[in-house]
Design a protein that fits this description.
Layout: H1 12-23, E1 34-38, E2 45-50, E3 56-57, H2 61-75, E4 80-85, E5 88-95, E6 98-102, E7 107-109, E8 116-119, E9 122-130, E10 134-139, H3 148-156, E11 166-174, E12 177-184, E13 188-190, H4 194-207, E14 213-218, E15 221-226, E16 233-237
């Protein structure tokens, strides 16, 4: 993911073009999304999240952990930061090599939202959860048997979600341990989704699979979700993999140095 400050004269169309160009895995850097850090009047910084298709997302939990780690390294602060997002102002804490994020309150969506979905002639129990962005959680027995590239896009455009939804397939590994597969709105199959993991934990507790604390295995790594407080807390690792300069011609801007 690319992080940087956004010049005032860069319009939304330019941002969308930039996200599409940067996130392309064949001609760009390749990413599941583009994060941009800009000044905030409400918090220490504001994070803007753009999907690989150029659309803007309200929030990205894993992105926020990366953003908090980057902000900590860039500013050398005390390790506790308030970050403004499209889902509100959220608090992040750096704890060694882990980043804990207070993700806000979750809502299990009721009337008008499906509690089951039909896929290939089979019925699966489901829950719809809002974490400031929409999530559809489908409960499955065997995650290995999920044709994610078929079922994911089918459910992304479910009629209950006029603006599309993130889709997660969730299975129970053992007591308090879950496994999650994700098809993200505007991004497709991804290795992890932080808001999705929070939504999955909330849905699993509502479904009777877990209590207040869970460990969720995702293809990209593990997340610990705590539901014991007023807000959902997500904890997981974040580390810098590279630093670079974008030289592409589409949607780029010159360095200020």
């Amino acid at each position: 993911m690319l992080l940087g400050s956004v010049p005032d004269d860069l319009d939304r169309a330019g941002l969308s073009d930039l996200a599409i160009a940067v996130c392309r895995r064949t001609f760009g850097i390749g990413a599941d999304g583009l994060l941009l850090g800009i000044d905030s009047e409400l918090a220490d910084a504001r994070m803007v999240m753009l999907n690989p298709d150029g659309s803007e997302a309200e929030m990205c939990g894993n992105g926020l952990r990366c953003f908090a780690r980057w902000f900590h390294e860039e500013t050398g602060g005390d390790g506790r930061y308030r970050i403004e997002t499209g889902a509100g102002v959220l608090t992040c804490r750096i704890e060694g090599d882990q980043v804990a994020v207070e993700m806000g309150r979750a809502t299990v969506l009721g009337d008008g939202y499906p509690t089951s979905v039909e896929l290939d002639g089979r019925q699966f129990a489901s829950r719809c959860v809002s974490m400031g962005n929409p999530h559809l959680v489908v409960f499955v027995e065997e995650w290995e048997e999920v044709p994610l590239e078929q079922w994911g896009p089918e459910l992304e455009v479910h009629s209950a979600f006029p603006d599309r939804t993130n889709v997660h397939f969730l299975s129970q590994v053992s007591e308090g341990v879950l496994r999650q597969l994700t098809w993200e709105r505007g991004a497709g199959m991804t290795l992890a989704c932080g808001t999705g993991a929070c939504a999955c934990a909330v849905a699993a507790r509502d479904f009777g699979w877990i209590g207040d604390r869970s460990l969720i295995h995702l293809p990209g790594g593990d997340l610990v979700i705590d539901l014991s407080g007023m807000e959902v807390t997500m904890t997981g690792g974040a580390e810098r993999t590279f630093r670079g300069k974008w030289l592409g011609k589409r949607g780029c801007w010159p360095d200020e140095d």
